Amino acid sequence: MTRLSIDTLHLSHFRSHKRARLVPDGRPLAIHGPNGAGKTNVLEAVSMLSPGRGMRRASAEDLSRRPEALGWKITATLTSLGRTHEIETFSENAAPRQVRIDGKPAPQTALGRIARILWLIPSMDRLWIEAAEGRRRFLDRATLSFEPGHAEAVLAYEKAMRDRNRLLKDQVDDAHWYRALEAQMAQAGATIHRNRANAIARLAAAQNRAETAFPTAELTLTHPDPAIAAPDDPEALQAALAEGRRRDMAAGRTLAGPHRADLEAVFAAKGVAARDCSTGEQKALLVSLILANGRALAADFGAPPILLLDEVAAHLDAQRRAALYDEICALGAQAFLTGTGPELFTHLGPRAQWCAVRDSDGTSHIEEDTP
Fold first, then answer.
1. Chain segment 120-148, per-residue pLDDT in tens
2. Which long-range CB contacts under 8 A does 98-103 form with residues at least 24 apart?
3. Which domain holds residue 228?
4. Shared-domain flag, residues 143 and 264
5. pTM recorded for the entire structure
6. CB 146 within 8 A of CB 300
7. What is the spatial distance between Cα 367 and Cα 371, in angstroms, rounded to a whole number?
8. Largest Cα span, the chain
């Protein structure tokens, strides 16, 4: 299978890294070091090679190394589907981040067309028990991995909704002001729902085809408003928005649409909702979905995605940890894994490339290591 891999990675004034250079060799990369050394910052830098605000959703200003606050830059060589690309993403003096691909300015969405990057970070361990917003974000990242154009539909929907919400807050009662915005929301919203439903179907198929040590999650996309009987039908969605104007005006915001959807999961073997599972089971369900996403992308995109697994050993016992490493290697994905000690990656052995991250007076340093 064709590979997707980062061949070189350079960081300049990014988070705790004043200067850093990595030359991954395609194997999983086991990154270990004490808390606060700068391990997660390496993974965050890789996540910035995809559309959006990265795995920690930080602003461009927050990514700049302190106290200098001069701006930051990430440069990478990426091999994707038999082609090599030079990628630069950077921000100067807290300005919005910019992207260059092969020396030419490019929109962030272009990154999603040449690379697929998935991540699992500790804050996601609460996915099944937090508010619906986190689950929507998780689903949209999976959806974006299958359909890069999903981001454009989300942006179009959110822009039209912001304008509609402004009318609602100002108590504007003229239907003419609403119709065009609601038509835009309906078209983009129906696309969002179809994309999400398609992503869920792909994840389900990828889970069902695999023999894995991780449990299968049955996923359902729900909506709290029963008035939206056909969220993938633009006309029905537009009608629901029009009918809900009075209610929305009283609330000062839009109460119906894909921005209110939720992702529900059930531990299939037990028939137990994910929110009611143990902490370890919730983490195993998350890992299962990330692996399913990776398997589906390997078939769909033509190469397995790059995986960013931050403190992945947390809440996984030794058996499941070993199973995860075996599945990553079987998938053939380039994975960046972090942990506080090298003993967490013993099962990988020579199948992985190893490095240590240490902190010295607030500056992170990356060193080659051996298992």
1. 999 999 999 999 999 999 999 999 999 98
2. none
3. 132-300
4. yes
5. 0.92
6. yes
7. 13
8. 69
